[in-house]
């Protein structure tokens, strides 16, 4: 009888979820509504909903998220994106694919400041996409590259996604931060190589080579921005502060740089920055709560165990096959939901199986996040794509033809990270 009840709850849970997604309902509502309905059908007390929502979010590590959001917004308003672009342009802007390389390099640096993919696209895209169009690049290519490069924001630390994964899995956020460095750089290199191939036949206006003096001036202007990830990561790995405390330090540092050094942050702009950050944090938290409730109901119906056993059976206990199946699941999940929601739902299902087969939890976290980073540039939920399209004022159809080869190169990085976990674990091993 209970088995039949579980089946009906599962049908409601996933059936309503799929229907709401197909109706283009926001992902938070698509996760929350079926969770509430299945909870009531299962006969659980409604009080279980706030209890589980509180339990999912009442974690010290999650305090880092609002601080990193504030820090990223402050640094964006402080004109940090222009400083990074000027430095990258001075170094590689004279190459044939110079602006494409500038886009990738700046995205890597800004990702280490904002910790967010969409924020990286929004901050850099407004400058770089028009600049690339003016230099002879197709505007759709510029938008596609900006969207793909912005996805690195999920991987290069500090990353909000790593914090969420750590809070769910129990993995060390500090080790996750360190593990993301090499895969993030590899993604940047892959996009740089792909962009150089794609731009070979483009009629691009070459920029003059910057002098040594111009490079030095650009470096001096950007030094305060470049120091931010050094302070954050150095403080964490030096044992000076925890990742959560590092987030608070980054917010204060960003405020000092914006107000007293770059002098671009006025009181009114600061207030708007705080309000925007509160709105973003509210959105993130609401999605996390709804995803946590959905994940709780998945576990309550026994689907976690059922799916886990099915995966072991399907892969015949073979780690290589399991990882391939995992990648396919995550790539599909990235197409229909945001990274944080996917983590809340899939980590409790996939991680125990991976650990049972001998795969490290930190390496598995990187594997999951790289998959979900690619999800940022895959429709229908590809947030980075829509952000880039709105900046470039083009349709999704225009951008897709350029995005596909970029995704192809990122998939190569994904396979390397998946089957050679030492890539992710090399730097964390130095901490031991």
- Computed over alpha carbons, the radius of gyration is 22 Å
The end-to-end distance, rounded to whole angstroms, is: 50 Å
> How many distinct helices?
21
Question: SSE string, helix = H, strand = E?
Answer: HHHHHHHHHHHHHHHHHHHHH
- Please, what is the average pLDDT? 83
Uncertain spans, ≥5 residues at pLDDT below 50?
1-5
Number of separate structural domains: 1
The largest sheet is: none
Into which percent range does the helicity of residues fall? over 70%
Q: Please tally the β strands and state the result.
A: 0
Strand-pairing-aware structural class = mainly alpha
Strand content: under 5%
Form type = globular
What does this structure look like?
This protein has 432 residues and is mainly α. It has one domain (63-288, 301-431). The protein is 79% helix and 0% strand. It is built from 21 helices and no strands. It has helices spanning 2-22, 27-41, 48-57, 64-77, 80-92, 98-114, 117-134, 139-150, 160-169, 173-179, 181-198, 212-237, 243-261, 267-300, 303-315, 319-336, 339-356, 361-375, 383-392, 396-419, 422-431. Helix 10 packs across helix 21. The longest helix is centred in the middle third of the chain and has 34 residues, at 267-300. It starts with a helix and ends with a helix. Mean pLDDT is 83; it is low at 1-5.
List keywords for this structure.
21 helices, 432 residues, globular, 79% helix, mainly alpha, disordered N terminus
Provide a brief overview of the structure:
With 432 residues, this protein is mainly alpha-helical.
Write the layout of secondary structure elements.
Elements: H1 2-22, H2 27-41, H3 48-57, H4 64-77, H5 80-92, H6 98-114, H7 117-134, H8 139-150, H9 160-169, H10 173-179, H11 181-198, H12 212-237, H13 243-261, H14 267-300, H15 303-315, H16 319-336, H17 339-356, H18 361-375, H19 383-392, H20 396-419, H21 422-431
Helix pairs in contact: 1-2, 2-14, 3-14, 4-13, 4-14, 5-6, 5-12, 6-7, 6-8, 6-11, 7-8, 7-19, 8-19, 8-20, 9-17, 9-18, 10-21, 11-20, 12-13, 14-17, 15-16, 15-17, 16-17, 16-18, 17-18, 18-20
């Amino acid at each position: 009888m209970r088995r039949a009840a579980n089946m009906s709850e599962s049908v409601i849970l996933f059936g309503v979820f799929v229907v709401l997604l197909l109706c283009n309902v926001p992902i938070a509502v698509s996760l929350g509504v079926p969770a509430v309905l299945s909870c009531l059908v299962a006969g659980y007390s409604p009080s279980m909903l706030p209890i589980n929502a509180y339990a999912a979010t009442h974690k010290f590590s999650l305090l880092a998220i609002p601080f990193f959001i504030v820090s990223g917004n402050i640094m964006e308003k402080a004109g940090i994106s222009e400083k990074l672009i000027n430095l990258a342009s001075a170094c590689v802007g004279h190459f044939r694919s110079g602006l494409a390389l500038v886009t990738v390099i700046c995205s890597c640096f800004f990702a280490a400041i904002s910790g967010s993919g969409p924020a990286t696209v929004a901050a850099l895209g407004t400058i770089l996409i028009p600049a690339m169009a003016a230099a002879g690049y197709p505007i759709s290519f510029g938008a596609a590259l900006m969207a793909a490069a912005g996805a690195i924001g999920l991987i290069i630390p500090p990353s909000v996604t790593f914090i969420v994964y750590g809070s769910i899995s129990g993995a060390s956020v500090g080790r996750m931060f360190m593990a993301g460095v090499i895969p993030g750089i590899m993604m940047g290199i892959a996009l740089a190589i792909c962009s150089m191939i794609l731009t070979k036949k483009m009629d691009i206006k070459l920029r003059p080579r910057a002098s040594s003096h111009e490079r030095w001036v650009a470096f001096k202007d950007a030094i305060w921005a470049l120091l931010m990830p050094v302070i954050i990561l150095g403080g964490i790995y030096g044992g000076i502060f925890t990742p959560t405390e590092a987030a608070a330090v980054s917010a204060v540092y960003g405020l000092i740089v914006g107000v007293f050094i770059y002098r671009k942050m006025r009181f009114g702009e600061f207030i708007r920055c705080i309000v925007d950050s509160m709105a973003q944090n509210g959105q993130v938290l609401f999605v996390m709560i709804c995803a946590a409730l959905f994940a709780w109901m998945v576990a309550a119906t026994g689907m976690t165990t059922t799916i886990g056993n099915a995966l072991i059976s399907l892969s015949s206990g073979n780690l290589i096959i399991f990882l391939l199946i995992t990648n396919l699941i995550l790539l599909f999940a990235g197409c229909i939901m945001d990274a944080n929601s996917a983590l809340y739902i899939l980590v409790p299902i996939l991680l125990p199986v991976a650990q049972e087969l001998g795969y490290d939890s930190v390496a598995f976290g990187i594997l999951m996040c790289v998959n979900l980073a690619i999800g940022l540039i895959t429709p229908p939920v590809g947030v980075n794509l829509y952000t880039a399209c709105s900046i470039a004022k083009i349709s999704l159809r225009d951008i897709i033809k350029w995005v596909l080869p970029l995704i192809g190169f990122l998939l190569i990085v994904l396979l390397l990270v998946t089957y050679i976990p030492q890539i992710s674990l090399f730097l964390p091993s130095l901490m031991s």
